[in-house]
Amino acid sequence: MPQHRADSNRSRRHRSRRRSSGRRGPRRGARLGRTLLILTGVLGLCGGAAAWYLYREIDSIGSSSALDGDAPRSEAGATNILLMGLDTRKDLNGEELPAPVLKKLHAGSSEIGGYNANTLILLHIPADGGKAKGFSIPRDDLVDIPGHGKDKIKKAYGLAKAAEETRLRGQGVRDGRELEHAGREAGRKSQIRTVREFLGVPVDHFAEVSLAGFFRLADALDGVEVCLNKPAKDRYSGADFPAGRQKLDGQQALAFVRQRHGLARGDLDRTRRQQAFLASALHQVNSVGTLTNPARLLDLKNVVKDNVVLDEGWGVFSFVQQAKNLTGGKVEFTTLPVERFAKHHGEDVNIVDRDLVRRRVQEQTADKPAPDRSHGTPKQDSKDSKDSKGPEDHGEESTKHPDEDAGKNEDKVAGGGVPCVN
Fold first, then answer.
1. How far from chain centre, in Å, is Cα 223?
2. CB count, 10 Å around CB of 38?
3. Tell me, what DSSP letter sits at residue 146?
4. Which of 35, 205, 236, 369 is buried most deeply by CB count within 10 Å?
């Protein structure tokens, strides 16, 4: 073949390849785009699968059998949850917390605090999806503790725990972890029963968290926003906050909910802070998409597994998903009324009208309040009860004075945002 013809053929083949290559360009780009889209979808599915896996893992956490299987339960789909904040500086096995953690808690040594349930909130979720109600029980209310007579309601846990451990030691049990587990289960049972009999309503589920658990939960949420009406500073709790809205990390959040010194109403103002913090945290869980974020779910899973105790069989996130009113802001908190203050065995206590408290709670948790037949007809007004001795009206008068306006005890803290408190 002549050289010029060969060169011509090679030139035509080269141009042909170039044209062919040019035609394949868009197809290649389309294939690349589809590949990236598929990869993105796969990664999205993996992320969703990871979130679902973590969701299921957290949903299955529940380690306590303290709820009595024969105890009454709410009817027609309503649910009552008892939230217990335990004032212990030890872990779930009764072991000392690491020194750096204790320092951050700003709560003293592990020997302080004992096993008092310093936070008690009954959360009622109605079956019809209406507004949820949270009832804070002041920790110093003088009530009947089954098997231990009259004492502060917060002591039901610790008294039962100590009694059970003493009983087991008498039977020869010496293992520290076994004693701690059995003692805490007895404490939970006693605290639940005491609240149930005090309020006259069922308890369907419970959640227990210690100081360390609260600290770690706040950190797992990447902090929680709160709002103060005025600056606050307290060397006992470590609180040191300006007025206004601000985001608190775990250490600061613990100081926020523990402060009572320097507050006009002491424990009652601290209770309102706990309510405000819970309302803000629930709002935040919804607004930042915590329940759909695998990283946040993993943090929560680890914290909950090591620091929070729930009743067996309770699927927490399944419940939260069903009860959108919690994270959507349809929740309102109130503090149950206190009649006056007194001394009981040398300690400051709150004197309460149990019939009045029961009536208030039952009216807001049931279509038809259940009558208290064991103690006669419930009183109709708190003013009437102040002139007579009620079933809980025991103890010497204290120099400690109740609020000038008793109605302040019933101030409400609404969810759906970041409520401002003192």
1. 14
2. 10
3. T
4. 205
**Sign of the CA dihedral 139, 140, 144, 148?**
positive
Structure pTM? 0.73
Given phi > 0 = left and psi -120 to 50 = alpha, else beta, which region is 147? left
3-class SS string, 382-393? HHHHCCCCCCCC
Which residues 6+ apart lie within 8 Å of 274 measured at CB?
85, 119, 121, 136, 257
β-partners of residue 305 are none
Whole-number Cα distances in Å, 113 to 85, 155, 181: 12, 11, 18
φ, ψ of residue 139 to 5 degrees: the values are: -65, -20
Specify whether the CB–CB gap between 301 and 58 falls below 8 A. yes
Query: What CA–CA distances, in Å, run from 142 to 318, 355, 413?
Result: 36, 13, 24
Within 13 Å, how many C-alpha atoms sit on residue 396's CB side?
A: 7
β-pairing verdict for 232-234 and 224-228: unpaired
Q: Do 58 and 319 form a contact (C-beta atoms < 8 A)?
A: no
Q: Phi and psi for 341 in degrees, rounded to 5?
A: -110, 150
Cα–Cα distance measured from residue 309 to residue 92, given in angstroms and rounded to the nearest whole number: 9
Task: Decide if pLDDT at 301 tops 50.
Answer: yes
Tens of pLDDT, residue by residue over 348-380, are 999 999 999 999 999 988 744 434 444 443 333
